[in-house]
Design a protein that fits this description.
Structural class: alpha+beta
Number of strands: 7
Strand content: over 45%
Shape: globular
Largest sheet: 7 strands, antiparallel
Number of helices: 2
Strand order of the largest sheet: 1-7-4-5-6-3-2
Length: 99
Amino acid sequence: MSEFQFEAQIVHWRGPSPFFFAPVPPHCGEEIRQMSKFVTYGWGMIPVEATIRGFTFSSSLFPKNEGYLLPLKDKVRRKLDLTAGDMVSVAMTVRSAQR
């Protein structure tokens, strides 16, 4: 498992299924891309455990434009009072896919 720490500005995807994400910086994305074939469970989804402001949650990175987005579920955003434009510090561990 690999661990990453980064700062990100939360973005709001207003597509057909609106959602909030913390973009993973390119320097982390390179390493994640190299290990992706060993940890993905399909469609390029990468299972992770992330911690923001002391709150730890499980999620899966979405591949997007040669990078990755960390989804922030409503439960996470409400607990931490986060919205688009907020800056967050993220500690994240890539996990092996459960098969």
